[in-house]
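User: Show me an example of a complex going from sequences to structure tokens.

Assistant: Sure. Here are the input components:
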Amino acid sequence: MKSLLAFSRAIDGLNTRIGRGLIWLVLAAVVISAVNAIVRKAFDVSSNAFLETQWYLFSAIFLLCSPYTLLRNEHIRIDVVAGRLSNRAQTWIDVFGTVFFLLPMALVITYLSWVVFMRSWNINEMSSNAGGLVIWPARLLVPVGFFLLALQGISQLIKLVAHLRGQGPDPNVRHDPAEAEKALAEAILRERGATK
Amino acid sequence: MTAFLIANMAPLMFVALVGFLLLGYPVAFALAANGIVFGLIGIELGLLQPSLFGAMPERLWGVMSNDTLLAIPFFTFMGLILERSGMAEDLLDTIGQLFGPIRGGLAYAVIFVGALLAATTGVVAASVISMGLISLPIMLRYGYDRRIASGTIAASGTLAQIIPPSLVLIIMADQLGRSVGDMYAGAFIPGIVLACLYAGFILLLSFVKPEWVPALPEEARTIREPDGSAGTRSLAILVALSAGAGIAYWFLYFNRLKPDAPTDERLVLCMSVAVGVAFAAAVVNRVTKMGLLSRIAERVTFTLIPPLALIFLVLGTIFLGVATPTEGGAMGASGALIMAVARRRLDLKLLKQAMESTAKLTAFVVFILVGARVFSLTFYGVDGHKWVEHLLSDLPGGQLGFLIVVNIVVFLLAFFLDFFELAFIIVPLLGPVAEKLGIDIIWFGVLLAVNMQTSFMHPPFGFALFYLRSVAPVKEYVDKLTGKITAPITTMQIYWGAVPYVIIQVIMIGIVIAFPQMVMVYKGEASTVDPTTIQIDLPAIDQGTPTVIEIPGADKAEPGAKGEAGKSGDPLQDMLKQQEDEAETANKSLEDALKAK
């Protein structure tokens, strides 16, 4: 169990670093899109490379930050029923879901999209738009993202089992659902206090 | 047994989905798993082609290269920066002071600011939190009915869902295969009408139950002239002046020089002129210290400028046809960043927080869509869409019967599901049926958006109520200004407060059904090219499949299929292709608009 937990910590570390590192792509996408719109209107210049960069960034954000979102337990759940169950039952549901829902899905898509990527790589596929970008890096994002997601699923599974055996904390931090809102309220009150 | 399975795959799949979702495992993965499990069963039974899953990477690719969805992180990021910029608080302070001394004034201020914030960005939580912190204590101090105060705040916050630019409308447009610009133009008037209905409810109360919505005493107004007067006359003159300038621009400029300019272009430009005049007057007044304007007039102008500038940056550019909705989002986000920096409200920590929240929200929203796509790959494969269509198109009463049933179903589902789930799972099933019945899809989308807005207000799960609960006082407290002990707001009061607004919402659904003209304005005048469809002055962009990649495992992948986007010989592939095509109508309308030029 110990070495498994160490493995799980390594995965968590990797996906946290990737997730936190890639948040800057949000700012990059905003700036590129805004500049692109202004330049197009002002100078009547535009390039498909710019437009394609935007959705490359977008794809990188949602595919590569998804494992981190899973780690933080922020993928939406419907907990009308499940929310009333005991912590133990919820943990069992998560074990079941990880083994039968998440892992097969992530592995199937990793495999299928890897095949597509290899094809794209072999023919050095280019965008069909004038002045477009090389396509294979974007195709590579899919298998990488889903593989990292599968890894994160394994890490969650290890932590869930450890929790069931009383050897670790509940990996699904039950966030206070109004956590973000409370933080915002505090910040607003603080700033108002400072100006008055 | 097998025969039963084959005959009832679609209903079985749907029932299983409900079970999978209720387990409480993340929706995105449960959806995808459902698709894969039933796909395997279907292949085993010979109902589906073994090549089925080969289409999955292409479906994912369609999600990735979707320009519309890019607006999700942009508007989210904009909202997160804006909520910390202090703009909402300034607005509530100033507008509250302005309207306070009339009966129901604070409630009008909350509704007005709610609508204004809704038009800059679309985050319900932020509006409700600001109002709960700033307006609620004042309302309680001067004896507003607790239920009315909390209901008004929660409902005004949800206006963000229906007034463009809202995430609901973006996702709805994407799922129904229409352009976001059309969806915005269609939702605009219903959004305003809804805000007016809220205000109408307060007006009614101020006659029937005046003690519930009292006027603030004059001394509650702290922005006054040196001689103690309120200075509202000066404001009235300024408003008249700028309105006059806007109207004059309409008649003198447009009617004479550009008589065929479309209405939305006129509106945007004339309003900009009006605001510009007021702003210029306020600046001149401040710089020269001439005292032409009263303090309240100057203050109101300066607090209204930032949100109006943002609205212009986002909605104005979209309606003028200068920017696509996605770019509007990026410009709005940049504007919010600049504003936050100018107000010294932005530091690295806040920026990182906002980016991280945006990245996580984007990931979970888009993953629900990915899951829904995997689900629908199988569901359409087993003719699930035909099953849904069969269920819904035989309803008595034709169009109207369909609309009523669908709205009741969505209204009830909204008690349990939030709008992301509704939009990604339910809407794609309903859209084609509506289209077949001859219902205008934008109208249908706006109708559903108004309906889904209630999901934020339903007691006990409504998010807006929940946000309000997190900031409303839970314990007795001593009011800072009056020193009086003030009772807390109970959860039941928040729930009861929402009830009249949920009823207004239902009335609004009826109004939108009865008066589709409100939405149909998106079509614009027949003589002009609709500016909302002119998007990019670029060579046409292929957002879909750049080159056709052979489907792995496809036993029929003939060499002829390569490089040809048309028939692949496999009926399922053709059907999927068709689906993808439908989802790209938005791009088509763009190309058509370019050709029309």
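The lines above are the inputs; the final block is the predicted structure for all two components together. Confidence is low (pLDDT under 50) at residues 525-569, 585-597 of chain B.
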